[in-house]
Design brief:
The protein has 214 residues and is an alpha+beta fold. Helix content is 25%, strand content 29%. The chain folds into two domains: 9-88, no CATH class; 102-211, no CATH class.
């Protein structure tokens, strides 16, 4: 799945929808997740846009399909514990994001050399276009360099586009890469406002800067 495809149908070989696209794990190899179609259909009786994704996952009790019992939908609260390693870490991130309504976007759209991922609580609205504008304002001041490395920075942006609370959660081993990413965020201050339909006055965002091919 690519950013912006959440909410679209997942089809089987006969063209029948069996799930709704929900999440993807960037660290995995095409590791995608969907909400069971029964849960999605049941949620149509209420206002879906106002309901957290985790609630939709938990709606459907055990049901019978073609006389076969199916397992209850995924629930972050009852999900099995996962071990360590890259897949385990990715699943822990996924569980946290599903329970909080966060979604991860990539700028530019394809992971490659010199890109940034943004994790943000969407509150049920499509932020794809906003992330593209904001990502462009950050990237134009970001020197990707030729080194390999990753820098993770948490920050807050308010409705007027003011960036504050910049906190380097995971610096690079090379200080120059960390300083470069922080400076790019600082220079994007007040460049792009939050969309008017965003329900909160501010958003807490995690940006991951990827240096070099990966």
């Amino acid at each position: 799945m690519s950013p912006g495809s959440s909410g679209g149908p997942l089809l089987d070989s006969a063209g029948r929808a069996f799930a709704v696209a929900a999440s993807t794990v960037l660290q995995g190899q095409q590791l995608n997740f969907g909400a069971p179609i029964q849960s999605a259909l049941a949620s149509l009786s209420t206002t879906v846009a106002e309901r957290p994704l985790a609630e939709v996952f938990q709606m459907e009790p055990k049901t019978r399909v073609a006389a076969k019992e199916v397992a209850p939908p995924f629930s972050p609260a009852t999900a099995p514990k996962v071990g360590r390693g890259s897949l385990g870490e990715a699943l822990r991130v996924l569980q946290k994001q599903v329970s909080s309504g966060r979604q991860t976007f990539v700028y530019p759209d394809d992971l490659g050399e010199g890109d940034i991922t943004f994790s943000i609580d969407t509150h049920g609205i499509d932020l794809t276009q906003w992330v593209r504008r904001f990502g462009a304002s950050v990237r134009e001041n970001w020197i990707t360099l030729s080194s390999r490395g990753t820098v993770v920075i948490n920050f807050t942006i308010d409705r007027l586009g003011h960036i504050s609370n910049i906190d380097v959660a995971e610096p690079s081993r090379a200080q120059a890469l960390t300083d470069n990413a922080s400076r790019a965020l600082q220079r994007a201050d007040r460049r792009v406002q939050l969309p008017p339909e965003y329900p909160s006055d501010s958003a807490d965002i995690t940006a991951t800067f990827h240096y070099g091919p990966h």
